[in-house]
Design a protein that fits this description.
This protein has 11 helices and 5 strands; from the N terminus they run αααββαβαααβααβαα. 50% of the residues lie in helices and 14% in strands. The protein is globular. Strands 1-4-3-5-2 form a 5-stranded mixed beta sheet. It has helices at residues 2-10, 15-18, 33-43, 62-73, 93-100, 102-109, 112-118, 132-138, 148-157, 179-185, 187-207; strands at 48-50, 57-58, 77-85, 128-131, 163-173.
Length: 210
């Protein structure tokens, strides 16, 4: 009953006055993450775009903090460090360290781009803030069921290296049914998609097509 609940909220007194620019788009069937993201971002009127996923959270003033860094450094793409939230607390320290230790991986590998080539240190589309210009330049997100976020940020590095904002966190809720867990379970399809993404990036670099 998601649609019904959203419409009930939007019909509350004063809601539309406070959120006059809010657009609710509904479909009869699930069109997949990358299609939904592309549709929403293409209809957004702002110069800067971001995505909030399911039950993840933003720290207070996150957008303000990240926008300041983007404009100060004249960059098109930013992401932050990640803090894992999980009410069941079933994930061990190794899992937590892997997700949260963004700065250390960048330090070891020498740059943000090199770290991103090794793994998606941004973790999720919800941790991305970028310009509408970049979104249009890249042609949006591509049809990858598991790693559309990693493909997008890798293609962004060919234009300009993103920045890491350490003053705020993306609060990522890890549970048994989110994409991070599915990636580990469906290794064959994940490996196939990773191979395609990296091959595409290599071809673009060799051709100077970015």
């Amino acid at each position: 009953n998601t649609v019904e609940k959203i419409e009930q909220i939007m019909d509350r007194e004063g809601f539309r006055d406070s959120f006059s620019n809010l657009l609710f788009i509904k479909h009869a069937e699930n069109k997949g993450a990358y299609n939904s993201i592309n549709e929403g971002l293409s209809k957004a009127n702002g110069d800067y775009l971001t995505i909030i996923n399911t039950d993840d959270l933003y720290e207070e003033n996150r957008i303000e903090v990240m926008l300041k860094q983007l404009t100060k450094q004249n960059k098109n793409f930013a992401f932050s460090t990640v803090k894992l939230i999980n009410s069941l607390d079933t994930y061990d320290n190794h899992e937590r360290k892997y997700l949260e230790n963004t700065k250390e991986r960048i330090k070891i590998l020498g740059s943000i781009t090199r770290a991103l080539l090794d793994t998606n240190i941004a973790i999720s589309t919800g941790n991305m803030l970028f310009t509408k210009f970049l979104f249009k330049r890249l042609g949006g997100f591509r049809n990858f069921s598991y790693i559309h976020d990693w493909d997008f940020i890798l293609r962004a590095t060919l234009i300009q290296e993103p920045i890491l904002v350490e003053e705020t966190n993306y609060l990522y809720r890890l549970h048994g049914t989110n994409t991070f867990e599915t990636l580990k379970k469906d290794k064959r399809e994940t490996t196939k998609q990773v191979s395609v993404v990296l091959s595409n990036i290599r071809r673009q670099i060799e051709a100077g097509n970015y």
